[in-house]
Every structure is written in structure tokens, then in C-alpha cells.
Amino acid sequence: MITSHRSSKDVSVTVKLLLSVSAIVLSIIAVQTWLNIFSARQRYETEEKQNLISIFNDYNDEVKVLERASAALASSFADRSDVQELLLAQNREQMLELLSPIFTTLRDDYGIVHLYVHQPNGFVFVRVHDPEQYGDAINTYRQTNVIALETHQAVAGVELGSNRLGVRGIAPVFHQNEFIGLVEVGLDYDQAFIEDLKARNGVDYKIWVTYDAAAPTGLWPRDEEMESPSSKLFFYASTNPNPLPIEEEVYLEVLHEREPEIRFVSDGNEDFAVLVAPLTGYGDRVIGVFEISASRMEALNTLRRHQVSTLVLAAALTVLALILMGISTERFVHRSLRHLTAVARRQLRGDLKARVELLPNDEFGQLGHTLNALTEELRNTLDNQKKIIEDLTQAERVQSTLFRIANAATRTKDFKELFESIHRYLGELIDTTNFYIALYEGEDTFSFPYWVDEYDEAGFSPKHMKKSLIAYVFHTGEPLLANENVHQELIERGEVEMVGTPSPIWLGVPLISDRGVIGVMAVQSYTDNSLYSENDVEMLSFVSDQIGWAIERKLTEETLRESEERYRSIFSGVQDAIIVESPSGEILDVNLGACRMFGWSREEFLTKTVDDLVPQDATALLADSPKGGELPDRPVETVNIRANGEPFPVEVSARLQTIGGDQVMLVVVRDITDRKRAEEVMIQSEKMLTVGGLAAGMAHEINNPLAGILHNTQVMRNRLTSDLQKNQRIAETCGTNMQFIEAYMHQRGIFSMIESVMESGQRAAKIVENMLSFSRKSKAPVSSHDLRDLLDHTIELASSDYDLRKKYGFRRIDIVREYDPTIPEVPCERTKIQQVFLNILKNSAQAMAQEKDEGKEPLIALRVQRDGDTALIEIEDNGPGMDDATRKRVFEPFFTTKGIGDDTGLGLSVSYFIITKNHGGTLSVESTPGIGAKFIIRLPLHRNIQ
Amino acid sequence: MKNLPKIRVLLVDDEAAIREGLVEYLEDYDFEVSAAMNAEEALYILAKKPHDVAIIDLRLSGMGGETMILRIHQIYPSLRFLIHTGSTDYRLSKELKLIGIQSEHVFFKPVLDLTQLLKGINNFLRGKEDEDVQ
């Protein structure tokens, strides 16, 4: 019974065959399914990691914002003149009165928790948030305070306090450039802060603090409801009290390595992706651990769905394979079966190269083909999967590098540190022996902020590189792997030229930010031309985006810092007064410039109206300014009055503005005292030029008639004395003699009359001589002199001058000398300059002799100092001074306040011309009536000596 | 005592009061004084009689004083000059310096002490005597 024999034997073989083949098929399906599930899991985890990193970056940004806000707030307090004055006066009560309401508002609106004012020695002057406590030193454990005290600069950072963790901003307080203390503002970094973050991201935050960092502050665990993951840490704040099963080692490693770690964990109910990061405080100190945990529910559900569908597919495949095999074993051939079995066994042992070689042209042969094909497929699949796993590992490493670069962008202090970090991280992926970063500076010029090379040295100064590989990559915006062939081809096409030491392989990628291509990053080798592959190109391109972003971020950070500083300095440097007033003229607010200009404090200003800033008699001046609420479209010149009652010229412009729904007037006041003074000097010198020319012209004409008078008078005198024999002879021919004539002349007073004529003529001659000097051209001085000597000599001259001594009591005057010992010699005419000094001293002495205040001790101060290219000489008296009208005319010829005949009124005008025309200098006078007068002489230090 | 010939002085000034005053003054000291009010007159006087010293005002109508001095010097090189001027900031020109006129020969109007002018003339004469001795 062939059939039964066959069938009984066939059944067992078929079953065996079926079993062995299905084992292979099932294992193929199982492996493939597992690989599919594994790679999906990897992909999802990578996505979750990226998500955590971006949340972590957000958190870092948030802390930076808090730091800037706290520093800005502190500075705004420190800049207030009232704060400065109260701190200077050590007035704690008023300081509290001033700051308490502001603090309350800021606390309710912005979450300020602290407001301190510190003494310059670091002791607490006042705690606005806790007024009863003061006088203690907190700079013993607060690094921010220590640094702010040392540097006198604004400081901000995260720091532990005695009972909380906070962001502190500290600003120095100055009064007249002297450091007088600190203002410190603290912002909460606490439950509220992380709750706020949670509301935004939906992830949980936990903060632990290290015992080490807390020890000096006296901050101890307050809340024991959450256990700590390590004995080094204690719980500080959390948005979710449930602990996560993460090993202590992870936290210790984060604390030690200062780099974030990511873990996937389950608390029994739920799965989480957790990022554990160091909590970095001010001064780059690690003060605790910061944990971000995100639920994996959604990710895992998606993954699970994927797994289920994969398994269903695998099951279907299995069933199909079993059916196929059942069919094929029906057509069993013994020899083929043995062979097939043997092959299958070998394959089972893992020899995937084994193939069915006996392939008859029947269904069994097809089964053999099928098995071979399956084996081939299995081999390919395994190879592919192996590659996928390798790729995934690579991707994982790239991902981790990306993450570290992102972290470095926020963590590093400057570009150098950032580039060093990038170099180190990339070194773990590819060979970076020769590595550089080139940034585009415009016009085909690149700077090399980071450069490591075996052969070439790159300076940090930008280089013009029009036809380099760098420029090529920059302009194409595409990565380039250039071996010698590619390089040669580019040279032949004229795209590039040889720059630097030639390298057999060069790999460059563009650095791209939001602004486009900003530079190029390149690696190269001088020895191994197969060092880099297309794989590396892909990897480097992938990382380069992140690096471009990191550089851009650093750039923005620095630009932001610079612009912040610039705006601050502009704002505090505004010289003009800015006054905000209501339509009815009440002053609502003023800037620092206004306080400086008018001399009122801000508080005083707020009790005033616009009328208080304008002198009574200035209303007339304002009369022609537009009325009826109409504002002038250009600045109006008028007079304002300072706190001390002194009027001063100003230029006022005003603008209507709506602030918070109210109409206010924004008034800008510019002090134009200096401009007015300069105008005055110009008018003065023009006037003096005219007068001088006129006087000189007159003098010439007067000299001739004067000579006629004086010469003939001398002849007359000669002829009336007996000294000349000729006189005697002629007298005798007239029937008389000289003795009679002389006696007659004496008795009639003729001789003294002649003397009077002579004296008057001589005086006129002297005046004319002075007037002539007005038009005398400046000529190069003959030698240089020490002005201090000249002044001292002039004082001696003045002391021995009869008039000065007797009439004006010059010797009573106290002379105070303030000479700069380093003043160089000044080219000048010695006698002329002494004449000027004497004229001014005489003027002062005469003025002081008219002093009505008996108690005032007469005093003249002499100052000589260097002011740039000029020597500055001041002669200041404490006499009665002069009013504005006198001051403006004081140098005019013949202008005198003294009685006629007392003086010619030419002394100061002669002095004026000596200084301005002969010496190319300036002479001016300042005076406050009742206080004194100050003559100011400037002489150029550098003139060609004849 | 030998009767020495009188020293001849020529005065040139266009202002009569000055001219006449000085003539009177110098005559009192035994000088023979001629006076001219302009260059033409002066040249005419010099042509008639040789002079020893000329006192010249610089600002004259017609030919200016400086040109006149240079012209006269060409014709009478031994004549000595004193300058009498109304401008106080007068400075000798190079040409005048070259013919031997120095700042001590310049007198500014008004001369407050006329004996200085006498001294100026006498200094010339002493120089002349020295020359004669040599």
C-alpha cells in the first residue's frame, strides 16, 4: 500500500520539515518585528528628548529675563536723586516712607519680594520688606553683594538667601561720583515661578538645593513632605510632589559634571521623560538640581498603536508562511527534503550564507528558491537593520551634540568659551585636529574667531578672502567636501584660488542663522585624504544649523547688552531739563537734568508750578510768545530762575502729549548760558575792534598839534630863564634884564602855568600813546616767561606804587597764590603782560577801596594753570563786583566808574588789546555784585618765537 | 677862542607850529637852522648851502619823508639824518638802516624833552670830530 506507506512516512517528514522551516520563517518575522518596534521606540525617544531640551532652553531664557529685570529695577532706584540724598543723610525713616509704597505696588504687580538699601560697607541700611530689621551684614554669604561692593557695578544672578532662593539685581548708588551704597531688588524664584512655567509648558518642575550651598545662608529644609533623591540635596519647590524613581547617581553626576541628563522612568502609574539639570547660581556656582518631567502618555500610546499594527502584520505573515509551507511539503521529494533540511539546519545555526542548491524544476525546487529568497531577504534585512541601528546610534550622538551646543550657547560667558565647547563636542564625532570657524564681515572679508591648525596661524583680524574655499562655501550656501581633485577642478574653473597650506581633504559647511549664511565652519587634514566621508558632510551640516543658531544667539546677547548700556548712558546723560506739566501749569514730573539745572530736588519740583520757574520781570519777555494754548513750532528763548534765585537764559520747546488719557505738556528746557556768553564775547570783541581802530586813527592826528604845543612851551620856558646867554643879551637890548623878568614871572605864576601846560600836554600824549597801541599789530614775542614770576614781580611793583599804596591800601590786601607748578613758560612780551597784570590789580584795588562792607577782609586770588593749549590766569577779588551793564562795558576805552580825572579809563582797554591783539589770547571778566570780580586771561602756549 | 663855523641844521615839517618852534629852539643853542615844508623846498635849500644835519618829518605832502631821505642821501652822502615822526609805532625800513640810520635817530612826536633832540645832534658832531681826528 503505497499510499499509506508513503503517507505514514511523509507525514512525519512533512511535520519535521514544517516545524524546521516554520522555525526559520517565524524567527525572521520575529526579528523583523522586533527591529521595527525598536527603531520606532528610538525615534519617539529622540523627539521627546528634543522637546525637553527646548523646554529647558525656555527656562534658561526666563531666568535671564528675571536677572535683567531685577538689575534694571535696582538701577532705577539707585538713579533717583531722592534715594541718593536720603542714603547720604542716613535718614532711615524718610527712606522707608519713600520706598514702602513703591515696594508694595511692585510686590503686588511684579512679584518683587525684597528691596534692600545697603551701606557702602555692606551692612543693611534698610529692608523695605522687613523694616524692623537692619544693620546686619549679609555680604558674608552673598556673592552678588560681595561683587557689587567690590566693583561698584550693577550685578544680577540667581542666589540662595537665608530663607529663599531668588533672583537678585543689585545696583550701586552714587552721589557726586562717590559710591554711597547699593540698592538690591529680589524676585521670587520659587513655587510661583515654576507654577507659572508649568502653566505655559504643561510639564512639572522640581527644585532641590544642595546642603553645601545652603549651609552658609542658614537656609534649611522647610518642607519635608517630599523626600530627597540624595543626602546631598533637600527639597525646595515642586509643581508635583510625587517622587520619580531616578537613581541617586544621576543627580550626583549632574552636580559633578554640570551637564543635564535625560532619563525615561515610570512611577508605577505613568511614564515620564525627565531632564535633570544643574541649578546654576550667580558666579557659575552649582547650587542645586533642577528637574523637568514630562508625561510620556501620549508618546507611548502612539508607540503602542504602532507596535500593535506591526504585530498584526507579523501574525498575518506567519499564517501565510505556514500555509505556503504546508502546501510545499505536500510535494515533498526525499533527496531535496534532506538537502533542504540540512540547509535549513545550517541556517538555523546562523549560517545565513547557506543556500538550497538542489533545485529541481518543480514546486519543491520553487520552495528551495523561496527558502533561498527568504534567506537572502533575511540577510538583507539583518544587514539593513544593523545599519539602521548604527545610524540611530550616530543620530543619537549627533542629537546629544546638538543638545550640548544648545546648552553651551546659554551657559558660556563669551564667544571663546562657546567655540571651545563646540570644538570639544565635535571632536567626539569627527577628527577636529584642524578646525576653524570663519565669520563673514562683509566685502569678502572673514574673521576667524576660532582657529586650530597644525600649520597655519590665523590672526584674529579679518582677512580678505575673495577666492578661498571658505568664500565659495559661503556664497553657495552648500557644504563642500573637497579632496585634491575637487579642489583642482574648482581652481581650474576659476572659482577658487590656493590660500594657505594645501590640504588633501577639506570639509566646510555654511553656518546659517535667521539672517542667512553668517559664516563657515571647516575641518581639514594635511595627511589623510580619506579622513572625511559623505556621512561626515551630512553630520556636520546637521550640526552646523545649531552652531549657527548658537553664534547668532551669542551675538544677539552681546548686542543687547551693548545697546542696553548705550541707552542707559544716553538717558542719564541728558543735559536738558525735561518737565511734564498739567495744562494748568502744575509740574507733574521732571528728569534728573531738570534737578541739576534748576537746583530743586524732584520732590520740590512737584510742589511747584511753571510760574515758579520764571522770574517776575520775565513775563514781558514771554509776552510775544504765542498764546491761547497754541504751542510755538520752534524753541523760544526766555529767562528761567534757579532755586538760588539766579536768573539764567534758556531755550524752551514744548509739546502736547496724551499720557494715560490725560493731556500733559512735555517741556524741554535747554540752558543757553554758555551760548549767550559766547555771543556776548563775540559782540564785545567786534565792538572793541571798531573802537580800537577809531582811537588809533584819532591819535595820529592829535600827535602833531600836541608836538606844536609841547615843543613851543619848552622853547618859551627856555627863553624865560637866565641860563641862556642869548636871553640875557636880548633882555638888555630891550632895556631890562633876565633877573627882573624872572622875578615878574615868578610873582605872576607864569612858570607854574607853563608847567601845567606841559603836564596836561604830557598827559594827552600818554593817552594818545595808549590809544595808538589799540591798532598795533600782533608781532611774535621775543622770549618765553614764567607767568608765576611775572605775577609775583607785578605784585612787588604794585606794593611799591605810591598811589596804590597810599590811596588804595594795596598792602592791606591779602594775596592768595594758587599756581600750578607744572605750567610751562609762555611766549610773551614781559613788560606788556606785567602792564596787564598791574592794570587789573589796580582795578581790583580801586574797586575794593570802595567796598562798603567794613567787615570784609580784602583778598585777591591769583591762579595760574594749564588748560589744554592755553595758560589760564585768573585774578579774582572779593570787592563789591559789578553789575551786568558795567561788566559788559568794562573794557571800552574811556569807560570808567571812577570820578573824572581819577583815571584815564584806558587801563583795561589797553590790557584788552595787549592780550587779544598782541598775544592772540582772550581777556574776559565774570562778576557777581556784592561777591567780587574775576578777570580771566588765556594765553596760547604755542606761538613762534621771533 | 677860535670862532667855529656854525653847525647847519635843516628842518623839514609841514606843520608850521612844530617847524617854527624847533627853529627857535635850535637857534637858542647856536645852530644855523633852515626850515622847509616839503621835499622840493628842502632840495632847493640844500642846493644853495651845504648842511650838516637834517631833521625830517616822515609824513609830508608830495614826496614822502622816507623817499626824500634816500634821494638826498644819494646827492649829499655826508649829510646826517634824524627822523621826527607822529606815529608811535614807526619802525625803520631796511633801506634807511642801510644808509646808517638807527633807532636812536628816531624821535616820536611830541618830544617831551627837547634836550634829547639836542643830544641827538651833538652825538653826530662828536662822531664827526672823531672822524676829523682820525
Task: Give a brief outline of the structure.
The complex is a heterodimer of chains A (946) and B (134). By secondary structure, chain A is an alpha+beta fold.
Give a structural overview.
- The complex is a heterodimer of chains A (946) and B (134).
- By secondary structure, chain A is of the alpha+beta class.
- In chain A, 50% of the residues lie in helices and 22% in strands.
- Chain A is built from 26 helices and 28 strands.
- In chain A, helix 1 (2-78) runs antiparallel to helix 8.
- The longest helix of chain A is centred in the first third of the chain and has 77 residues, at 2-78.
- By secondary structure, chain B is of the alpha/beta class.
- The longest helix of chain B has 19 residues, at 115-133.
- Chain B is globular.
- At the A-B interface, helix 18 and helix 21 of A face helix 1 of B.
Name the features.
heterodimer; A: 946 residues; B: alpha/beta; 5 helices; 5 strands; 43% helix; 18% strand; globular
Number of helices of chain B: 5
Structural class of chain B: alpha/beta
Rough shape of chain B? globular
State the total count of DSSP E strands of chain A. 28
Cα distance, first to last residue of chain A? 150 Å
Query: What is the first-to-last residue Cα distance of chain B?
Result: 23 Å
Task: For the largest sheet of chain A, list the strands in their spatial order.
Answer: 13-12-11-16-15-14
Q: Tell me the number of helical segments of chain A per DSSP (H or I, 4 or more residues long).
A: 26
Helix content of chain A: 40-55%
Q: In angstroms, what is the radius of gyration of chain A?
A: 50 Å
Q: Could you give the order of strands across the largest sheet of chain B?
A: 2-1-3-4-5
Globally, the shape of chain A reads elongated
Strand content of the residues of chain A, in percent?
Answer: 15-25%
Fraction of residues in helix of chain B: 40-55%
Describe the largest sheet of chain B: 5 strands, parallel
Overall pLDDT metric of chain A: 81
